[in-house]
TrEMBL record:
Entry membrane topology: Peripheral membrane protein
GO molecular-function term, one example from the UniProt record: structural molecule activity
Protein name in the entry: Coatomer subunit epsilon
Superkingdom, taxonomy of origin: Eukaryota
PANTHER family registered for this protein in UniProt: COATOMER SUBUNIT EPSILON
This protein's UniProt keywords: Cytoplasm, Cytoplasmic vesicle, ER-Golgi transport, Golgi apparatus, Membrane, Protein transport, Transport
One cellular-component annotation, GO: Golgi membrane
Amino acid sequence: MDPFSDTGDLYQIKQQFFCGQYDLVVKHGLDSFSAESHYKATEYVVRSHFALESIDDALKIIKEDETEGEDAEKLKFLAKYATYLKSRTGGESSDIDEYIENFANLEIVAVLGSVYLINLGKLNQALELLSGIEASLETIALTVQIRILTGKLELAQKELSYAKKWAQDDIVFNFAEAWANLSVGSLNNLQSAFYFFEEIAQGNTSFKGLVSLLGLNLQLHHFVESKEVLNQLEQLAQTSQTEESLAGDYLANKVSYDAITGEADFEQTVTELREVAPSHQFVVDYDDKLATFDGIVAKYAEQIEA
């Protein structure tokens, strides 16, 4: 039996992981998985601890694991990556670089190694690393994201066309397809992405999924529905731990909602966003526009005084 099929023992934990239900993933007992599925289940749990910033818990799981062979090497890499995350340096790591150089054939090294390279701004190197893995939907999904970020939507769609031949309605493929639809931006594409994220929000509710649904509701001018999603997000934020990036995305969308509807002072939300995620792209763009505006005002002020 395929462990990832809807009757396999990895189906639920995989759905939960990719939908951002990390608090549910870490509650899985690893002893309940078959020997064939043990490593992958462990990987999902460890990476969920990464997302929840409970790095010590991730390291404890790795340390206590008795896996041997190639899977043991994968766990060693996860331990190195955990240590890197715990250091909070955000810069280059000789340990991660060494694994990328010597174990690029391992999917987990390609996946997390590419994320590491992306954060360093080394997009071409990340693409090269991802291209070395065949028949992996997660590496394809990351490649699609990079293509979208660099404005190469045709190449992103080419990756999706290749994967569609064997993806069989996989959750990872569906996410990648939804990201591409968002980037195309036509009404039909936005609605297609909306239906996907709405289904995810209802079936596998998470902060991550609701933030995506909020953004789509705003783009489609569904302001009543946007308010409902905002209320759900506020409730979740009080009861669960949230990644800084997701908290930033939530507040960035809330700025848009406040500015459009006038229900709250959007500048106050911008201030909150600065405190939670000071390097968020919205903050960077907002400051750039303010600086440009201030420059124009100063220029005309000089002309008037003259």
